[in-house]
Queue: 2 jobs
Job 1
Amino acid sequence: MAFNLKCAVGASVFWPPADRVVSTGYKPAITEKDLFKSIGKVKEVEGVELFYPYDFKDVKTIRIVLNEIGMKVCAVGAGIFSEPKWQYGSVTSYDEKIRKEAMDICKESINAAAELGAKIFTFWPAHDGYDYYFQTDYKRKWYLIVESLRELAAINKEINIGIEYKAKEPRTHQIISSAAKALLISEETEMDNVGVIMDIGHSFICHENPAEEAVYLFNKNRLFHLHQNDNYADWDFDMMPASVHFWENIELFYWLYKLNYNGWINFDICPFREDAVKASELSIKNIKKIVNFVKKIDSSLYKKAIDNNNALINQEYIWDLLFKN
Amino acid sequence: MAFNLKCAVGASVFWPPADRVVSTGYKPAITEKDLFKSIGKVKEVEGVELFYPYDFKDVKTIRIVLNEIGMKVCAVGAGIFSEPKWQYGSVTSYDEKIRKEAMDICKESINAAAELGAKIFTFWPAHDGYDYYFQTDYKRKWYLIVESLRELAAINKEINIGIEYKAKEPRTHQIISSAAKALLISEETEMDNVGVIMDIGHSFICHENPAEEAVYLFNKNRLFHLHQNDNYADWDFDMMPASVHFWENIELFYWLYKLNYNGWINFDICPFREDAVKASELSIKNIKKIVNFVKKIDSSLYKKAIDNNNALINQEYIWDLLFKN
Amino acid sequence: MAFNLKCAVGASVFWPPADRVVSTGYKPAITEKDLFKSIGKVKEVEGVELFYPYDFKDVKTIRIVLNEIGMKVCAVGAGIFSEPKWQYGSVTSYDEKIRKEAMDICKESINAAAELGAKIFTFWPAHDGYDYYFQTDYKRKWYLIVESLRELAAINKEINIGIEYKAKEPRTHQIISSAAKALLISEETEMDNVGVIMDIGHSFICHENPAEEAVYLFNKNRLFHLHQNDNYADWDFDMMPASVHFWENIELFYWLYKLNYNGWINFDICPFREDAVKASELSIKNIKKIVNFVKKIDSSLYKKAIDNNNALINQEYIWDLLFKN
Amino acid sequence: MAFNLKCAVGASVFWPPADRVVSTGYKPAITEKDLFKSIGKVKEVEGVELFYPYDFKDVKTIRIVLNEIGMKVCAVGAGIFSEPKWQYGSVTSYDEKIRKEAMDICKESINAAAELGAKIFTFWPAHDGYDYYFQTDYKRKWYLIVESLRELAAINKEINIGIEYKAKEPRTHQIISSAAKALLISEETEMDNVGVIMDIGHSFICHENPAEEAVYLFNKNRLFHLHQNDNYADWDFDMMPASVHFWENIELFYWLYKLNYNGWINFDICPFREDAVKASELSIKNIKKIVNFVKKIDSSLYKKAIDNNNALINQEYIWDLLFKN
């Protein structure tokens, strides 16, 4: 089965963005109804990624809304981060009540995913980490995260539990900080349906080369889902994909194409100062250019160069191809 | 005149902190009255840094409030960042109406500083920068910032205009990103009362060694004010000072002490998950330990080592002193 | 069994250091004999880490030399990096001749380790990586490294194969770049005697918190050996340990102490401009201060703080303890 | 006068590269004669940058060599870094003998530049910095560097003294670490012929956006010369230009073109594992593609976008232009 760009957007892209400086938001408030109307306008998008209960409260209602705009659901994530109660962690909280509440939301999200026809549950343990040195029992945190994932994976083996790793924000340090750690932890659960969501922006933040990481995650059958956005490798600014990292995206999509990655790509940007519909459309349009471009690469030429360790051949070949395409 | 730790806190430390993830805030809302009551409780603090009109609306009222808690004002800053109207810049906005509004708030802040007995106007041009490549006329932005500073400096030559440089946040790139740029721009105004506020956390973010930067700023008579906080050199997490960077703070305070820096030190942390009063007190307590420590350093020994380029002598001397103090 | 600082030095510390700029070396040439005489002078050191065939050519001769200076061997590493023939990789070379030569040196080093009473084989695949994008078949490289390690591990199950991970230098990217990747690859070999050498400097370069990584490596029984040195988290300058990262080392040794880590610590600095004997001694002296310090930490107090997610308690406790010690 | 790509190569590109790991060099030794023969083979190159006395010992001889290969000299630099005697600094050395020797070599290099028809003296104070905290009298170092530059600038006002700033290597910290510092120091000399050499790779290392820095250096009449190479923003690997940073180079050359920069561009790569002639040619060929590309950008469209702070317009325009060119 051939690689095909299957595009989704996150509902969160369309909520008014805020940050520490403009905490009341860069854009006017929007109703849930208008939000999904906006999503419906984005060209080339087939699916949406939703966080429960932030983007929807019940399956029945959201199903109607999505039908109206003709969207599938690519993934459902657990809303275990936006309220202050999660500030010391969700499924790794030492407060049993908080931990149970987090697990319950995860379970409901997994069930919602199944009911909505999504194959992916997005697990982003935002506050499960630490800020200061001398603040953490690292062993206990690791144990709790593995146990939680094992438990979640058993709920519905048809739903893939995707760990969205991230090095920082909102904590200065998150437990599952890199692709390699996400894979380690996936394997430690001994469950086939625990794997990794690569958010390309998160990958840059922890100084990975996304192509390299994607290849081994894929080969371990644990590359479940992709989020696309970009930044300057320092902070998760969720900019339009490839607006900073150009070659890295070309190499990434070359390998996704060669490996026949057949999952979704969720365009998960945060357009603080830009129109969300336009920015989403431009993001997809630009990545389509990259996908079309990598399909022109002659794999036998490419392979010959890499089999010879030769850096110059492909540097010349790719540039020549780009500037005459 | 000898170096003395003159401590202030920012009023902003005591407002409920928020970020992109928990935009409604990590702590309950607080009234202005309760906020200043909290500030009044912090031990060892003589002054407060205020942003107009965020922390106070008129001079008369705030003067009463401050008298009640027995606090001086070390600096007044311009509130030109928290509303979405500033998102494309304040004094460098291309929208003349926005630009004028920003300049007006700056002028009112300068006047308020004078009336409240503060010597420093804090100029933090938060949104005056850019996010994407191909988005900016760099020459025009530089010109506008210099012209604005020149104009502000002329309002009241008794008030020092302190540029709080910062590399990023809320924009991915801010115009005045480093100590050297802040000094360049200060000198370009040809006004003696334009200089630099070193926020130690900002200094780490742009990979400076604060001691080194403080020395040349001081020697140019442009080191006007200090903000103290810490981070992991990637993002402005505004943690407690020296909780990450220990030696850097010891070297910084050694030189502040030797140079007889006699300005304020504003403890400008952002205690997302910590009690603001306790975190402020601990910040001051820990920095006092450092100040007491550097006073024990024998300058003639220290000087002998640095005059000989010898790295080992002071590495041994400082460690020995620390572990037997 | 209690934690005890068991100190070694690398023979490489005592060779004249060179870099790209001063490629002929910062110090005069030294004979092998004088080198080991220097090592013999370093106080508090019980062992030495050797690279075969760079530091010794045959077991019999080196045994005599080491007896003379009264040193044990903590680890033997494979010299598969200093000659230009290795520039495209050693055990992952696509040139079968090079690959075999690399494997042979590894095998001889493992045998030498056994004969010399060392428990650790140091595996540092320096050139096994890439420089440019579009230069590498990531899957093939990963496969080759795992296969090589499996083969090496089978030679002598009494010898622990320690992967010294490193993100960069001499390549811009090395395959085994982080602690998590080193552990992943160790586990993939399905051999109990493949594990990790944490070089603390390498850990900083890939933006790890060494304490956090050491804990999970230890809990997986794969923390085989430690190298101590420091840098500014950008490049492997191999400076004296804790000269930059102070708190990080305190937290690291706290956990090594609590976990009863009983391996060696090899002081593996590169004193470009400093006397190698003096710099080694000072490195050990300073780390001893840290070890003595962490032994004073009341674990029940420490634990109570971390069980409550509270950042302030230990920040205050550790500072108080340090400044009255 | 219109912008024209005037290409040079550094002679150092063609010497066998070495680093800390392969200190004997990645390539066989080469004679001076063969080196210049290699340079003569590089297509599209009009000039060469030379370091005295590393690349030539006397003007008369090198003039003959250069005539034979038909090369001009774009710049002459001072060879004050490759011998161990410089390890604590050159013109800022506290050893008067070393300092004088460094100044003498600088003076001879300036004279050689004049005799060879070059307009630029390359000043790269490699070891003038520090490694450890507590090792440096920052004020004294700053003073010495300014005084030295003032003295050198007075020798021949027709020769531009170009400061090649760099944040690190061979020291962990160099005094003139950024474009802004290089400009500050240039202005402090009060000499019009002291200015800045932007090495694009060095610019990335200190996290600058080269376009932004080039614009204000140019507007201050202090952008004297450019070096082209690339890296991953962590270490000066001197890779082929734009092989990592693509958009950054497009924006840089857009502004160089608009500003009519008419200096040289020296392709100053370090091809550790690549053929020097081929890598130089490919570097130039790729940058030519970029130059041709930026000439197609409609400045009135570009300007309209940046005058409106709009990030999307140029992101779309530039991508559309690139993928149909």
Job 2
Amino acid sequence: MAFDRLIENIISKQNPTVAGLDPKLDYVPASIKNACFAEYGKTLEGAAEALLRFNTAIIDQIHDIVPAIKPQAAYYEMYGWQGVRALAQTIAYAKDKGMFVITDGKRNDIGTTMEAYATAHLGTTDVAGEAVDAFGADALTVNGYLGSDGIKPLLNVCKAKDKGIFVLVKTSNPSSGELQDLQLTDGVSVYEQMGRMCESWGAELPGKFGYSGVGAVVGATYPGQLAEMREKAPHTFFLVPGYGAQGGGANDAKNAFDKNGLGAVINSSRGIMCAWKKQGLTEDDFAVAARNEAIRMKEDILSVIGEIKD
Amino acid sequence: MAFDRLIENIISKQNPTVAGLDPKLDYVPASIKNACFAEYGKTLEGAAEALLRFNTAIIDQIHDIVPAIKPQAAYYEMYGWQGVRALAQTIAYAKDKGMFVITDGKRNDIGTTMEAYATAHLGTTDVAGEAVDAFGADALTVNGYLGSDGIKPLLNVCKAKDKGIFVLVKTSNPSSGELQDLQLTDGVSVYEQMGRMCESWGAELPGKFGYSGVGAVVGATYPGQLAEMREKAPHTFFLVPGYGAQGGGANDAKNAFDKNGLGAVINSSRGIMCAWKKQGLTEDDFAVAARNEAIRMKEDILSVIGEIKD
């Protein structure tokens, strides 16, 4: 089961974090951008090549200490199909370096269409008998608003191809409660109901560490709900955004973990990508700074959860 | 306001429908596929070129009688970045022929990331001072599970660039009720709450026909809820899936319209793309068959709603 692979990687590296690769062109050093624009012009192709070089430099620096990356699809789509090509190249590069890849796409649709998304991001596309990985991530974030038949096609692909999904439960943004915190007549909130659905869907994808292949996104910016959901969804592995730039700290993120330090992976995006700004380094040192920050973040979280054991 | 343009197009063509372009490779005639595979091999590139030729042939046949297309992002992503390039090319081709383009991506994320999606699909990407349309659709479908700060960045782009969004309210799939139909403690359902949020967000984007730039997706497969939401969300324009292959008929879709025959656009995807199968034609006649079906569908819907007036 895919999250077994992620958890093994977390234990062996003693690092329950994921590096979010959400590269805006503004984050890329002028030296890289100028080289790419000189080669491809000030075009989407030039921009996409700059993002790819930025990403691979970071992956080179962190792949031995960070178990996973989480590229955010939106930042690649912003640079057109050329940006989406850079996403595919980033995924392939990270997998080749042994990293677990979570594509953050928050995809959702009705059953037949969800099959297409599952094939695109986790499965294998059939081209007249040739089997091709279109994007080939290890896991995908999804939105469960459409209910079971928007999720079931993913479970089939996850089973067949050893992949996982993370369903949005309680998101990290300020207005997440507008819908997610509303109380239903049976006494649970909308986000808790979504957590129940994750536990139910996950029963089809059991894992050897007690966590299923259906994870949940729960933000570090809501530590109370994080603790609540850790208790109420004991088989659901959490992807936790909101650490760092969004305001969550290690003591908030701590609530995502079980007593063995398992059960969650904490994301940092801007904190990793823009780390040079806080370290008195130049922008050309962005990749080394990302490594420094990855080490600092790992130690910060381990200082509150202790050694990670299976 | 973007939906004013769509509504004008609907009135002038007397056709409140949108052609869903969700092309699976299986739908594309062997003659087109073989030509593309001969040129590009059995690759994602060959597959993507086949989808593009299929789409442009349909657009050539229907652009004078159908006001809009709705390409579904999943079916392009399934063919990798090459497929996503075919999506961009399809959007550009349809716009060039005067059609209104709704990209069906059901995108959703927190504020900063939603800005990136808004820029990608509706806005203009800044590449070192050069302004480039990454995908350039007229409207995008989105999922409101994250609340206002996942929607507000879209409203800014919609205002600046004359674009619109459709928010998922009550989807057409069998399990849509698992979350959407649950009752909240204040007596409304989750989907009705989402409809209220659409009315609220839409107040920022008023339109001259009484419909705002924030539309809603409400399925024809739930005609009761469609009638309910038409009444409760009077300023919200509806994108209605579920007609045809999913089981909804003209009498179901009728509930989406106001007394002037305005207020909604009805989608058909497989019904249009695979029309040749029901018309005793060969697969090479798929584009002419799509036109025949577009005319039949328009007449079917007009027969229950009457003339469309402003």
